[in-house]
Amino acid sequence: MDEEMLVRYQEDAPKKPVNCSMNSDLVARAKAMGVNVSAAAEAGLLAAMEQAERRRIEEETAASVAFWNDYEARFGAPADEYCEI
Fold first, then answer.
1. Of 40, 50, 65, 79, which one's alpha carbon is 20 to 30 angstroms from that of 29?
2. Choice between 7 and 26, residue whose per-residue pLDDT is larger
């Protein structure tokens, strides 16, 4: 899942000016180093969204696993009646 993009978005969507507050020293140093601040902010936003999506998937998966573990503890595995192992 590491290589797969978790967050889908329209990569060719037009750019939109936004207003956000950033540490002025950080921005000045980044610009002095030739960093494209807009591109870096966009990449950071995507990374934050992917992290949030991973958390959501992990929570959803944990809930599913807990449900099935509880089910199996109460009623046995669904395939038990067909398996002789």
1. 50
2. 26
Residue showing tokens 């020293």 = 25
Quote the CA–CA distance of 8 and 35 in Å, as a whole number. Answer: 25
Contacts of 61 (CB under 8 A, 6+ apart): none
Cβ atoms within 10 Å, residue 4: 6
d(CA 68, CA 78): 10
Neighbours of 49 (CB within 10 A): 13
